[in-house]
Each structure stands twice: as structure tokens, then as C-alpha cells.
Amino acid sequence: MITKSIADLKERGGPSLQAILKYIMGNFQVGNDAEVVNMHPNENNPTEYLRLFKNHVEPSSNPIFERFKFHKRNQKEFETIEQYITDVKLVAQNCSYSQQDEMVRDQLSFGLKNDRLRERLLAEGGSLTLDRAVLVCRTFQKTQAQIQTMHDEAKQTIKQEVDVVGRRVTDSRANKDCHICGGPYSNEHRCHAKGKKRNLQPQTPKKDNQDPEVHKFYIFSTSKRPLLFKNSSVSLGLIKFLNEVTKKPDQTVNRILSEYEDVFQGIGKLEGKCHIYLKESCQPTVQPPKRIPISMQDRFKAELSRLETLVIIEKVSKPTEWVNSIVIVEKPDGSLRLCLDPRNLNKCIKRPHHPIRTFDDVAIKCANSKKFSKLDARHGCWSMELDDVSANLTSFNKAFGRFRFRQYPFGLNYAQDDFQRKMEEIFAELIKTAGLGLLIDDIVVHRAIDEEHGSNLEKTLQVAREKGVRFNREKCIFGKTEIPYFGHILTSEGIKPDPNKSLAISQMPKPKGPEELQSLLGMVNYLGKYIPNLSTLNHPLRTLLKEHRTDGSFQWTSEHDKAFANVKNSVCENLKYFNLTSEDVVLKVDASQHGLGATLTWDGGISAFASRSLSSAEQKYSQIEKEALAIAFACKHFHQCVYGRPVKVLSDHKPLKSILSRGISVAPP
């Protein structure tokens, strides 16, 4: 019947067929239908009518923009491989490529989110065609689905076997109602209506949907495809938005930075001049000039000229007792850094030995803080001017002449102590009142609320402007909830290891020699506060290094493989700040055959781990003596946090309780 109708339309000609087309497309047209009709002068040509209608609803595309969309088309998070292939082919149709199959093949190889599948396609090399790429992708997707099915069935089998244990045998009549009175089935034998004649109300079963039910919804952070997305949940009424949280732009920080732009420009100049004190018995030395490679000479001259312009160095014509060497360091961008090589001079300097703060000194002040900013002093050493006598000690010579430093040079051991002292004097008031964190040339501004954070940041920049401190804008961080700081991450929740360092440890290959093993142990020890019982975990590795130093042997065994894996997998992801006001402080201690371990906790949160190895003499102690030694070690290591406050000590060695509960005078030796 349909075939006959189409044949009749063809026999009638254009006007009838065109009228039918206009009637059918009326529901889908875009714009004014009269506008489409007026564009077509010949009503006897339905094909022309279709062409004009298509051009009206689908304007001509821009090949350049379509190619941009094509190259940006990567596989989405929950998109299947088949969907991705289809969409890439559709997008490529509007790009006007002469070699369309090759371009689609390349985009498939680049845009896939599965690294293993991408590697398989790249391994095909130049012989890979589009058909071959599609076949490999479909085969891979099918294989993954089969593996997932096998895995799910295996998990279901295990779950069923586990659920058998403890399963209660229930009566088949359970959860049924009495057919006489409607009561529980188990009550039928004592049913009050059984065997009696009376008018009974019919029992009408209650529908399940008459009682409201409360269901729990669980939210998981996973890459699995969800059953319902946000839009679907809102449409079904499962989720109702009462209020939406909007992030207010931090205009305070932007205003402060624009007001103190001068603090981030140039090199600072601190007040006063510095003097270097020498030991009385030291003998001056004169180092001969070192030759400069021809490829560096032009850049070396340019750097000397730049430092002269900045008044960091100056030429010297008169004799000086000390003449040092210079070390040239090539930066990644090709420029040079000139550093003094004062090995002989450092031996003769009287260091002031100013106490340098540690990371823990700064981190302990950050408890309860939510906003952080980090300020990095620009060329801290160059901001301190030397007096004339001290400047003569830093002279150096090259083929282009003899120079001396007017500011502190990099490499001088006196510079760090002097710079730390001056910075603490400059920001002393803010360190005391605002909890400012200061470690060498890095300053941490932190507070619990934005207003206080902005106020402290402005005060810090104001003091820096008045005292001649300048910061490196590229290395500064402002108004963040977490910042990197000396190999750690300061966050609003606590401290974390630097992801780069954790990743370097987890990806480090098996050491092939003592040097690589020593490097591994050094990296692990730096993150020791994040690793529980580190001394016990790395004991086989330390023993191997000790044996190499004794007899030169280095034999890596399966025991070392196990220790290596345990160390890499034991890094804790997050530690809480220690709360100075907490009264629930607990020290958890433990002792093994080779080491001692301790954990500092408060209010149930872990603040730090500590451990150390046992000496050869301590390894001969009895177990109860090792456990007591672990308590002494924990109290000494965390002395700064536990002194002057009630502390609970937890140990798994119960005999210690009866011994330590006695007085010291009556306790056994």
C-alpha cells in the first residue's frame, strides 16, 4: 500500500510531492515557512526544495573551527570506545580533510583515555590503518568487558560462600499472615477466631506504598559510572537544592597585591652593613683563575655586566689578601649564575651560629588555619651589604679582571645565619602577634578566616616595604587552602608529604648499588615522620649498606625486595597539626628486635611518627627493657609537645605497668 502511494506521488509530479514534503516537515521547520517557500521560485522541483530547506536549517560550517573541535575531541570519562569512535568520525565529516581516514586514526590514537590501549595502537607504527585501529579498539573493549564479567562472577561466588556461614534457618511460614484473623502465621494455633462463629471484618491487605520509607544514599569518590547523574536525580525529585554555595572572589588579596606592587620589584636592601669575623690563626689563600669554556664566555661577560649594574659586584684594582675561585652554574633557560667558591674562607670564618627554625616550629603554629600565603624573598643574600673589610674577603679573579662582592655572595656559611637573624628582627612583632612562620627566606602567612589572613598579609608587606625586603612574585602563593613548604604541604586539615617526593619514592627502581641504596634511605628518612615504624621496615636495607661498608659485598635478595616494597607503601597521606590546647595527648610506643617506634596523637588524630634503630648493645636488651626504652625515646623525641601537660602512654607490653607504677627508688634496675 505504501509502495503504491509513493508511486502515485511520483506520477503526479512536483507540486503534489512538494506539498506532501511541506506538510511533513512543518513540525521540524526552523523559522518562518513562508520564508522558505519564497526562496524557491520553482514549485515543480521537490529536490531543490529539500536542498534549500537543508541550507536554511543547517548553515555552512567553518572548516577551521570544525578542525579545532576535531583535535580537541578526546574520550570522555564515561564514554565507551564505540561511542567515541562514532563521534570522532561524525566530527571529521565537516573538516574537509583530504586524508580523512588517517586524521580519524590519529585522533583515535591521541584521544583515548586508556593508556594501555593507546600503547597498543602506537606499537602498530606506520602500518596502522583506520580499520585496524577500530578493530583493535573494539577487541580491547570486548576483552575488558569479558574480564570484568569473570571478575564479578568470582566476587559473587566468594560472597555467597561467605554468607553461608552464620545463615539462620528460618521457617517457611515466617512472615506470613493468618488466613483466619490476619495475625501472624505462627499464632494460628491460638487464633481467637478459630472454630467460632461471628461476624468478622474482611482482612484487606495494606499496600506497600502507603507507609513512607527512608532510604540511605551513599556517595562515593570513584571513577565507576554512576547509575544516576545529578540532572536525572533532580528531575526525579531525589535531590532538592535548598541553597547553593557560591565562591566569592577574593578581592582583598588582589587589592593588597596591587597596592604593594613595589615590594615584588627589584632586589631588596636591608638596613646596616654586615661584617665577617675571621679566626685569629687563619692564613689567607689566593686561588688561581679558572679558564672559562669558549661557549660560555659571552654569557659570562653579560652576567658580570649585569651584576655590576645591580651593584652586586665591583671591580678591584688594589691588592687583597684573599682571592677566591668562582663557580659557574648554568640555569635551565641557558643563563648563568655566579657563585663564590669560598671553601678555604669558610674554614676561617667565625660563625655566629644563630639558631635556625625547623619546619615543625612553623607547622605547629598553623593549627586551625584555613587560608595560607607563602612569600619568597628575592635573592635574600644580595639584600645584605658588606662593609669594606668584609667585601675584600670575597674577591675573585677571572681572565676579564678581578672583582669583589658588595653584597653577601651565595655559598658563604655566614650568610644564612646573618640573614635569618635579620629577618627575625624585622618581622619579630608579626611572629609574636600574628603567628607568622619564618624559615630562611620563606614566610608563611596563615589564619582561620579570610579577613584576618588579608590583614596579616597586608601588615607583612607593609613591614617589608619599610625595611627593604623584596619578594619574588613568581614563587609566591596567595590565599590558598594548601601550600608547599620545605618538602611538605601545609593544608587546612594538617600536613602532607610533598606529592613529588612521595611519587619519587614510589616510582624509584630497585637499587643496583650502595650509592642508589643510600640515596633511597636518605629520601625515606626525610619523610620519616609520615612512616610508622620506619626503623623496623628499613632494617634489612640498612643492614645491607652496613655489610657493604664492612666487606664490600652487595647482595640483593627477596628479603630486601619485601622491605623495599613495605617502605614505599607505608607513607601516611595526612597528619594533623598538633593542638597546643588539647588535653587528650597520647603516645603510642612499640619496640621490635631492631628498632623503636612512637606515634604522637591527640583527640584520635595522628600528628607524627618517630622511630630509630637499636644499637648492637641495645639489641641484646630483654624485651621489657626495649619496651621501656621505647617510652623514654618517645618522650625525648616529642619533648617539645608533651612537656608540661598530662600524657597517656600506650604500650602492648603489659608487664611494664606493674614496674613503672612503682616509685623510682623501688623499681628494679
Description:
The chain is α+β, with helices and mostly antiparallel strands and 669 residues long. The chain folds into four domains: 56 residues, no CATH class; 81 residues, Orthogonal Bundle (Non-ribosomal Peptide Synthetase Peptidyl Carrier Protein, Chain A), CATH 1.10.1200; 238 residues, HIV Type 1 Reverse Transcriptase, Chain A, domain 1, CATH 3.10.10.10; 161 residues, Roll (Ubiquitin-like (UB roll)). It is built from 26 helices and 18 strands. A four-stranded antiparallel β-sheet has the order 9-10-5-11. Strands 17-16-15-18 form a four-stranded mixed β-sheet. Strands 2-8-7 form a three-stranded antiparallel β-sheet. Strand 13 and strand 14 form a beta hairpin. Helix 6 packs antiparallel against helix 7, helix 7 packs parallel to helix 9 and helix 20 packs antiparallel against helix 22. The chain is extended, with a radius of gyration of 39 Å. GO terms for molecular function: DNA binding; RNA-directed DNA polymerase activity. InterPro entries: DNA/RNA_pol_sf (IPR043502), Histone_H1/H5_H15 (IPR005818), Retrovirus_Pol_polyprotein (IPR050951), Rev_trsase/Diguanyl_cyclase (IPR043128), RT_dom (IPR000477), RT_RNaseH_2 (IPR041577), WH-like_DNA-bd_sf (IPR036388), WH_DNA-bd_sf (IPR036390). This is RNA-directed DNA polymerase.
